[in-house]
Design a protein that fits this description.
Number of strands: 0
Largest sheet: none
């Protein structure tokens, strides 16, 4: 057999199965990278939405008061709050 063919075959087998950066690991790392990029895009859009809501919330006192009443059930000192839940 040709020594160059044997060396090439040995190199390919070595890279596929024994090397630290074998092909299987590279494929898994590519998939992980794609997943992380997708998550990054999701969180970036989510951050933009939260920033818009925050900006809207702090523009007027009425919006801030509405948020405090709805989300944290806050009330004024001379009021009573009744929470009605549907079953």
């Amino acid at each position: 057999m040709n020594k160059f063919l044997v060396a090439t075959l040995f190199f390919c087998i070595w890279m596929l199965f024994f090397d630290r950066s074998r092909v299987i690991n590279q494929i898994k790392l590519e998939q992980t990278l794609r997943n992380l990029q997708t998550q990054k895009e999701y969180y970036e859009t989510n951050i933009e939405e939260v920033k818009e809501r925050k900006k809207e919330l702090f523009t007027t006192d009425e919006n801030f008061e509405k948020f405090a009443r709805e989300q944290h059930l806050m009330k004024k000192s001379n009021e009573e709050v009744f929470v009605i839940e549907k079953e």
